[in-house]
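Assess this one:
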Amino acid sequence: MSKILMVVSSADSLKLADGSVHPTGYWAEEVAASHKVLRNGGAQVDIATPGGVRPTVDAISLDGRGGVAERDAEEFRAYLASIADQITSPLALSDVRAGDYDAIYIPGGHAPMADLAQDAGLGRLLNEANAQGKAVAALCHGVAALLSSTTSDGGFTFAGRHLTSFTDEEERQGGLGDNTPFFVESRLRERGAVLDTGAAWSSKVVEDGNLITGQNPQSSTATAQAVLKALAGN
């Protein structure tokens, strides 16, 4: 049985460009749909957060403000309730080791921009996983968490790699707009990543060796499926 570590942000707020504080959390679909696909595919999925803090679901990911239909929101709520024990008592990120897992999977919501993108412990974990050839997967704003991983000379571990993320266009259309602390796509480009993006709000997954990334919430299922396929091929 494959073991997958799902790293979820523990942030519940994000400081915006204008200095105001915006409530946030993980995006329900990205955790629920991904976890369901991975578990139904036969994988053991553990959840970890910085400090082992219980993560907060972004309220707008469960209603129309986030473009989520009530029927879908009910499905996500039900699945999250079914794994409440993991969400309520996640592992502490500092206690986990890359060698104990076959893959690392990072869902989004704006929250990873507040903590995971700068988390040195996560950066070390990602560097270890990458060096060991383990699958490293990230989704939507969760791709910002890759920014935590640096080389010994201060470069970006994933510079030169092909990936996708929540796009600048999507951020302007349905995200925080120009008040975002930073645009994930632009920041990744600045750090040397090669961005391959699809049409806004379409499912898009990019695979580059052991690195698997999904563009947005619509890519949740496809990203998780890509991880299972990659693990099955090892």
Q: What stands out?
A: The CA atoms of residues 3 and 127 lie 18 Å apart.
